[in-house]
Every structure is written in C-alpha cells, then in structure tokens.
Amino acid sequence: MRKTATSPHPGHPVRHRARLLPGLLALSLGLGLGFLSPARAAEPAVAPATAPLPASPLARAFAAAWERQPLAAALPQRQDAARAQQEAADSLLAQPPSLDLSTRTDRYNRDRGAREVETGIALPLWLPGEKDGTRALADARKEALDARTLAARLQLAAELRSAWWAWQQAGQDQQVAQARADNAARLASDVERRMKAGDLSRADLNQAQGAQAAAQAALAESRVAALAAARRLQSLTGQPPKPADGPPQTEPEPAANALPGSLADEDGADAEGAATAIGHPLLQDLAQRSAVSRRALELASRQTRANPEIAISTRRDRSAAGEMTDQTWALALRLPFSSTPRNQARIAEANADLIEAETQLRLERQRLAQEGETARAQLDAARLQLAAAETRARLAAENRGVYDKAFRLGEADLPTRLRIELEAFEAERQAVRSRIQAAAALSQLRQALGLLPE
pLDDT tens across 294-337, in order? Predict the structure, then answer.
C-alpha cells in the first residue's frame, strides 16, 4: 500500500477528514462574514431627537403632509440600503466567497471501494481600481438619495403652498360674502320697516330683497368653494384644516441676495459645485444625479472583465477499498477574458446618463433663474396692487357709511344705496384677495429660491 507524503499519520484517514471539512467550512464562513467588511467599532445607538414643533400653521401643515408621503415612509429603508452598499464596497472581496463540494464513488458500477472527496473555496478578487470606484459610486448614491429627498420635499411644498393659499382665499371670500349677506339682510329689514311706515314703496322692498337673495347665492357659492379648497388641503395633510383667527400669517421675507447671479451662469466652473454653493434642492438633486452618472462611468471603464477568482481546494481519494487515502492540495487562479461589446454597452449607457444629467442641470439652472426673477416681479406687483386695493376698500367703506346715513335720513334713494353697498363689497373682496395674493406671491418667491415653509 502507498503512503501519502502529505499525511503525517497515514493510519488515521478518518480523523483527517473530520478535521478538514469543518476547517474549510469555518474558513468559508470567516471569509464570508468577517473578511467581506473590515472590522468596525460598534456604533452606539443614538436616540432620535425630538424635532421642535413648527411655529407657523403652514409649516405644521407641511410637516403633516410630508409624513404621509410614500418617499418619507420608505426613506429609512433606502438609507439602510445605501449604507449597506457602502459597507459592501469596503469589503476585501469583490463578491462573497463560494464553497465547492464534490464527491466520486464507484458504488453504483464496479463497487471496488473507490472514493474521492474534493472541497474548495473560491475568492472573487477586485479588478484594479474597481474597489475605489465602487466605493465612490456608493457614496455618490448616498448623497443622491439625500438630494432626492430634499427635492421631493420642495416639490411637495409647491403643491401644499398652492392648496394652502387657495384655501385661505376661499375662507376670506366666504367671510366677506357672509358680511355682505348680513348687511343685505339688515338693509332689507330696514326697507321693509320703512315700507310699512309709508316711507318707501313696494318696488324698493323688491330691490332690497333681490339684493339679499343675490348675497345669499354668493354666500352659498363661497361656502362650496371653501369646502372644496379645504378638502384639497386635507388630501395632502390628512387633517381637516382649522381656520385661524385673524388675517393669514405670511412666510418670512427671503434675503435680497437669496438668488445669486451665478444661478443663471451657464459657463460656471462646475455645475455640481455651483449647485452645492447655491443650495437649491432641485439643483442639488440634478448635480448629485450627474455625480452618480460620472462615478458609474468611471466604474464601467474599469470593469473590463468579470472578477478574477482564487480557488483553494483539497482532494482526498483512494483507488480501492482497503488502500491508503491520499490527500492533495490545489491553488487555482481564474482569469476571465474581456468582452468588448458588453463593456462598450455599459460605458455608452453610463456616458449617456451623464450627458443627460448635465444637460438637464444646465437647463434647470436657467429655468430657476428666470423663475426667481419672475417671482420677485410678481411679488412687487402684488404689493402695489394690495396698496391700491386697500385704498379703494377704505374709500368705499367711507362712502358706504355716508350713504347709509343719508339713506336713513331720506336724503338718498335705494338704488344709489344698493350700488354703493355693492361697490363696497367688491372693494373689500378685492382687498382681501390682494392680501392673499401678496402672501402667495411671497410663498412663490420662497419656492423659486428653494426655501421650505417656515
């Protein structure tokens, strides 16, 4: 019988086999669990800080609306996935190791007791520069997720601001319509009393009651509009809006230089750096998308072939029953060939994404610059209109008081009194709408500057 040169105790082949397989299994688990990522200190659990409650009603409505968004619900899991990608990029192996087990026997044909057991482990290796490129891509995707979240919050803010100020305007219109209906009811009651006293005719009472009916119809229409606006806002926040006491609270005034001139500069040094300096969420989102495409292009240019592998295996065999078991070891290197068409497809795809992202970023910078200038002009015009509307409302209210007194004294006729009342109502409604439009224009300016509700 032959003696193996690799086995110091040829009389105990079973003992070697018992030691070998658990050792390779432990090695595989160690490479798969311990060597994939470098050892890191355990991070202490940090208790989530309680965010302070926003002061303004609009900011509180925005916080409630964001909690209902699908992106906000899935955000923790996406962040975990991004961190897992970063940890995978820090591993020592390009892919998890694989364990190969095989056995051969002649039991089903000659049955001479021939046995062969082979156990091995394959370790995928990084290509040159692939590890750094994978880590850079994972970091870029993590930052892109943060930028995407900010952009989604800003887009939600645009929708919420539109619904918020529409609801505010509908509520103010309803209050003005209610005041008009109350005044029309008092006037009709006064005309009816004077008609019974013989001071006015039946035709005058018909005119007063007709004006009262028109005011009631306008009030009913304003209630429906207010209800529809409230339902639209509730669909975003999930809560029925509560009318605030007093005039609606406006958002803080943005800084005069909140829109840098570099925003509209197409020939800036670096679009990604400019977006970061400006801080506009939409630009940051596009800039991070461009960064992801750039990192993907760099990684694709390095992944010219599949990952090579180092395989370590051992084989124990005997040719027949009763013979000595031999054990041999093998070290293998697997080098895949490159595939030019497949590599070119990945590189071309990544390059197309990069060109598209950079072009979209340049166009978005131009659009935001124009939108910011337009929003400032609209705010200035809304404030001028508000000043004129408030002046008109003040003068119309004075005229209403004068003609109301004159009508009570019999110095003015009813048609003139009704015309003055309608003019005062229209002036007051226009003043209220101008206040809402000025507040909405300020919100639109903050939206164009990338500022969230405060």
Answer: 999 988 888 888 888 999 999 888 877 777 888 889 999 888 88
Give 147: exposed, middle or buried? Use CB within 10 Å, 0-12, 13-18, 19+: buried
Structure tokens at 164: 């918020």
- Show Cβ contacts of residue 36 under 8 Å, excluding neighbours closer than 6 positions: 88, 91, 92, 93, 96
CA distance 232 to 166: 9
pLDDT in tens, 16-36: 444 444 444 444 444 444 444
The string of pLDDT tens digits covering residues 38-97 is 434 334 334 444 455 556 889 999 999 999 999 999 999 999 999 998 888 888 888 889
User: Which residues in 278-345 belong to E strands, given as ranges?
Assistant: 309-318, 326-334
Q: Residue 323: how many CB atoms within 10 A of its CB? A: 15
Q: Which residues pair with 366 in a beta bridge?
A: none
Contacting residues for 257 by C-beta, under 8 A, at least 6 apart: none
The CA-atom distances, in angstroms, between 109 and each of 105, 115, 186, 316, 322 are: 9, 13, 113, 20, 18
Strand order in the sheet with 115-124: 98-105, 115-124, 309-318, 326-334
Three-state secondary structure call for residue 122: strand
